[in-house]
Amino acid sequence: MIGLLTTVTFVPAVGALLVALVPRRRGTAHRAAGLAVALLALAASLPLWARFDADTPDFQFEETYRWMPSLGVSFHVGIDGISLLLVLLTTLLTPIALASAWHAIEDRAKEFVITMLLLETGMLGVFVSLDLFLFFVFWEAMLIPMYLIIGVWGGGQRVYAAVKFVLYTMLGSALMLVAILALYHQHGAATGTYTFDLPTLARWVLPPGLGQNLMFLAFALAFAIKVPLFPFHTWLPDAHVEAPTAGSVILAGVLLKMGTYGFLRFCLPLFPDATLRFAPVVLALAVVGIVYGAWVSTVQPDLKKLVAYSSVSHLGFVMLGIFALNQQGLVGGVIQMINHGLSTGALFLMVGMIYERRHTRLIAEFGGLWKVVPAFSVLFLVVVLSSLGLPGLNGFVGEFLVLVGAFQVNPWVAALATTGIIFAAVYLLWMYQRVVFGEVTQEANRRLADLSPREWALLVPIVALIVWIGVYPAAFTGKTEATIAALLAQVESKASVALAR
Amino acid sequence: MIPGFTPPPVALWVLLPALIVLGTGGLVLVLDLLPPRESKAHLGGVALAGILVALGAALALWLRGGDGRAFRDMVLLDGYALFFDLLICYAAALVVMLSMDYLSRTGGESGEYYALLLFSTAGMMLMASAGDLIVVFLSLELMSLSLYVLAGLFKTRLSSGEASMKYFLLGAFATAFLLYGIALVYGATGSTNLDRIAAASRGGDPLLLVGLGLLLVGFGFKISSVPFHMWAPDVYEGAPTTITALIATGSKAAAFAALIRVLVVGLRGAQPDWSALLWGLAALTMTVGNVVALAQSNLKRMLAYSSIAHVGYMLMGLVAGGTAGAGAVLFYLLAYTFTTVGAFGAIGLCARAGEEAVETGDYAGLARRHPVLAATLALFLLSLIGIPPLAGFVAKFYLFGSAVRAGYLWLTVIAVLNSAVAAYYYLRVIVYMYMREPEGDGVAVASSLAGGLALTIALVGIVLLGVMPAPFADLAQAAVAPLLR
Hints:
The complex is a heterodimer of chains A (501) and B (485). Chain A has 501 residues and is mainly alpha-helical.
């Protein structure tokens, strides 16, 4: 009997195979079928939310199947309070991204739908895997669909951006593979059971020292590139700018979270000593990323580039929260992951919407949109405010918790990070002012159409969640608090030095 | 009857699979003389049938589980030999299927093609069962001489002649090294039989070490490891694509089969020495192969360098040693054979302006005109990169795992960085197929039932090996177990 989690994970892949069988002549049939599959996956994932028991830190909806017993590999999946939210974020954003490409991608639409669905299975697999081998399989497998999405359906420099994306990520994960194997053998040699099972490995105390440090660094490099943590971020602006809107939404919304998720799921419990040892370095890099990303965003003439660099800044907050290594910081980091997925996903969607109308993304080409497209402008304002962390909307909750957590570790770090919020207000509001306020300066902007029903349908769920998290964050933080507390307790019990709370 | 002479007991069943292939080769030669003269396609069918019967025989022997020795331990039949018999028959069968239409399309159709192909296949199978250095040498020659001729099949094409000539000259040179090595090993131990060499060899004997070095030169040529790889790109490029596929898979697998048995059984006393030598060879081979492959625009040359790099990975397994290491090499060969035959097969189906399409640029826009073939080729390339859930990934995983387990961490780091670099040149082909538009005439894809079937089998193989690797990996481990006893 196949369980719920496996079903959710593989519905998109099976759907992709079915879409592949639909003949090419059938116009929009592929798009409709793809959307239906993605919505089915969303519907299948909702019971996870409803039936999730927030009081226990244990993995839930666990399933284990024999796969390669002689190697100690099993198909082991399960979710806790961290992965639950990310799974739902994935199943929510994928149909939205697919629907956003309804008109934007006419060329080879069939292949596009198949690729997106395969990508969804890859992303879900990363979040639900509880076996290092299985995790690595999904981690690598999901590279290729994203590569194709950027490279086939992207902009002018798409090939360069796609290849850069793949090579960066592959170099990072290559060393992670060695670290996985080394951990596997060290655990096997010490305990006599050779296994890739994550909970088993996480219970074992890896002796501190050079070996643990190197393994941590190998994992951390793979994740830091994905996040991207400064200075490993240079692939991101290229990939974001060249990717089609749907690709950018998924890239920003879900893919970057795999890096931060990796830190939470693997680095912290497996290598607690190394985590504590390198936490100051990561904190410093996170702060540099926050400030640097904000500054660079300020001077971008291109809307999409601006949003891309703002991701560097926002993901810096997530990293700051995680490596603050206390309850508030970690909960804030997790919520900030979700917030960034929603807000930045929505920003990319809306940038894509005006790009479809005007075929330019240069800020200077716009101005006075409020008068032309009021509905668009209002929703854009909500999303911008959410991204810069206005109280009452989701961004504030995450950033506030992260800063509270960071302050306990080092007030100076928190103070510097706070300037990132101020600069976020600068670049986002200044951008909004130039695009939306003022007089209509360009003749071409006078006849822009306001949001279509399809576009409303894309944005309303995201905006609703933005407000929901902002007004009642306990609904979301509550799901993850028990897990985070247990994770911290685990790090503390395994580490040979005390945790600074 | 000569007094005092008792003929050795003859146990031909030990040679059964190879004999079937050899017999079919002879049959093809005879049938070639009979009508119809215009078409030789039916000979392909005969060859295929012969290989399949041999495959069945090998399978039956495997299920019977019988180990056998014949001709005073010169020929061995064990799980190890049968594993390679299956692998080689499988590769040869796919190559024959790919050849059927390829030959008529390129004008290279001839009866002797299939006969030579079968002879070389028989040579490969014998190499895997060789329990004596003399048999290694004889079977190697049987395989190589047939391949030298096959590489020059296109008599009117200069590059084909060059490939044949180069392969022959360098091959003969390398065989001389091998023979000299055999002579020195014989001098040091007084025997050419692997078991007796193992029993008689003493550690640190300089004569044995020099012999070992010379043997490694000879085998290094056949598996195309750096620095004995110079022939590979030219031969791969000039030879008919189907023969390239056979050289890249069957002959490489056979050379590895003999190499592993010679090192692990015959020269087990000198393991620290050859292990250290192979460490360097492996690192050098994978790095040079990958770096030079980056600069290739000809697909066949690119795959030639990539196959050199894969040899580097496989040598890692030998360095790691033990059942895990050698078993991982066998599994890698299995995955690699499925993948490489598929990749060359897909290339063989493509033509541009009457010529074979071998430049990367020829493949621009292939995905738009022939989405199925493009997707197939892309999957083979992704498997070569080592992207899960395809065969190449699991094979690398086993191999790297065995190296880490044996403590060769730095070699593994070199290997994983190499495989990340390798992604670039494989992906470039995908870039052309999916992300570029063709200039002028696009690629024409020949429709070939047998070829399509072969590609489908190879594709199913790489997916199956990738998703359900456990039974095959256990099989590979079981196959090497008797060697290490």
